[in-house]
Amino acid sequence: MEAVTKAIVKLRTECLERGAAGIKGLARHLRILADEKSQSLDLEGFLKGLQDAGFSLEREEAQQILSLCDKSQNGTLDFTEFLEALRPPMSEARKEVIGEAFQKLDKTGDGLVTVEDLQGVYQSQAHPKFKSGEWTEEQVFRSFLDSFDSDKDGKVTAEEFLNYYSGISASIESDEYFVDMLKAAWKL
After folding, report:
1. Coil, helix or strand for 136?
2. DSSP 88
3. pTM exceeds 0.85, yes or no
4. pLDDT score at 97
5. Do 77 and 69 touch, CB atoms closer than 8 A?
6. Are 76 and 49 spatial neighbours (Cβ–Cβ below 8 Å)?
């Protein structure tokens, strides 16, 4: 189990060195390769995704992570379980405030944030490119969503939102500061 822990910590560290987009970027590469129905990858797909995203894990390390995240014991990496293992540990207080921020954006309550959800919540008119006439309101909204949307489908899931903030969370030691920062940013 120690080797598995070292492998996931090594990959997590590489992701976090890339900033808030590290986990999000890896997730995007892996989602492209994942089986659409099962949201899983075999070892070769996992290795290809790691390589495509520019990560340097040895085959043995990738196999250890795959074994850790193979819920069904069928030789495939379960995507959801992998992302949970990859995210830096977060306190319940942090997860809770991230959830509150997501709920504030998800006006329809369907578990997805879309351009329609942002209308009335995000002030697009204050964006410099909107003010200059360079972008429409929809372009401003899409640009904002792209910050969180790892698979670029125009919808942000709670998981994508959590992945984004897990990268930021890792760089902030104090729970109190992190919670206060999110409450101020999202006016919670």
Report:
1. coil
2. P
3. no
4. 97
5. yes
6. no
Q: Which amino acid is at 2?
A: E
pLDDT at 136 exceeding the cut of 80: yes
> CA-to-CA distance for 143 and 154, rounded, in angstroms?
10
Taking alpha carbons only, the member of 27, 21, 9, 109 closest to residue 68 is 9
- Which amino acid type is present at position 119? Q
- Return the CA Rg of the chain: 18
- Taking residue 145's Cβ as centre, other Cβ atoms within 10 Å add up to 22
Tokens of 157: 């899931």
Q: Partners of 76 in the beta sheet?
A: 42
Beta-strand ranges (E) seen in 16-147 are 40-42, 76-78, 112-113
pLDDT at 102: 95
3-state SS, residue 50: helix
| Structure tokens that stand for 34 in this block | 């994942």
Opening angle at CA 162, ends 172 and 64, nearest 5: 90
Comparing CA positions, the residue from 113, 93, 91 lying closest to residue 159 is 113
Read off the tokens for 5: 């822990």
| Whole-number Å distance between alpha carbons of 55 and 38 | 24
